[in-house]
Amino acid sequence: MGDVLAIARTAACALAITGFAACGTTSKPVKPDPSYKLLTQPGTRAPADDLEKAILAQLKQLAPDKEANINGRVVVAGAPYAAASGRTCRAVSVRANGPAAARDHLACRIGNGWAFVPDVVRRPTTGGAK
């Protein structure tokens, strides 16, 4: 009788362990939010062309919300502000043929210079001189 009881206990334990393991393996893994990395570790992007290189080189000297001519394009940089990342950033609008053709960017101070960063919160186009 003792052997039967031992076998029954072993079978019950094995069933319990297997049941718990099976319950744990049926759930699907949670996929991380793709924007999480962008929000917590914003990267920078290289300037796409000579115009963007010139904008970054001159950004420190640009007066806030005033039109400036850089490489034949009208550029308007917003006022510097302290971003949640701890960096100083500026909205930048590049106009080709008037406000309708504006390209908006976000630039932040990185070390001793400026770099374009992903704009996770879209803002309206910066205004120009009136």
Explain what you see:
With 130 residues, the chain is an alpha+beta fold. It folds into two domains: 2-35; 43-117, no CATH class. 30% of the residues lie in helices and 25% in strands. It has three helices and six strands, in the order H-H-H-E-E-E-E-E-E. It has helices spanning 2-25, 35-40, 50-58; strands spanning 67-70, 73-77, 81-82, 88-95, 103-110, 113-117. Strands 1, 2, 3, 4, 5 and 6 form a six-stranded antiparallel beta sheet that branches. A hairpin with a 2-residue loop joins strand 5 and strand 6.
> So how many helices?
3
> Helix and strand succession?
HHHEEEEEE
The major beta sheet can be summarized as:
6 strands, antiparallel
Q: Beta-strand level of the residues, as a percent range?
A: 15-25%
Cα distance spanning the termini: 99 Å
In total, the number of domains comes to: 2
Q: What global shape is seen? A: elongated
Number of strands: 6
**Computed Rg:** 29 Å
* Structural class category: alpha+beta
* Arithmetic mean pLDDT: 74
Q: Helix proportion of residues, in percent?
A: 25-40%
The unreliable regions are 33-41, 125-130
